[in-house]
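A further point concerns the way the authors explain their paired sequence and structure data. An entry of this sort, consisting of the sequence and the corresponding backbone structure tokens, reads as follows:
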Amino acid sequence: MRVTHHPILGDLPDSREIKIQVDGKEIAALAGEPIAAALAAAGISVHRYTSEKSEPRGVFCAIGQCTDCVMTVNGVSNVRTCITPVIPGMTVETQHGVGQRRDP
């Protein structure tokens, strides 16, 4: 579900639909929207699981200040999905723990 009209922000601008991969499943997204918004519209609320207790986490602050919404995006761990825009063909994976370090 997407908010198409907001009393302060106005109407949702027309955006082209693109596809991204989330945990091996293709979902629709709107070009330029945050990854977290595309996930919410697709009914996906769990973005990561904590290190110690494997507890699910999702969007908390939605302004990039916390790390609850981090996921692995295109092989890079700890990407804040609430402030990272979708791009066509990106691969998003649920993160378990702190993620994997990838050296350049």
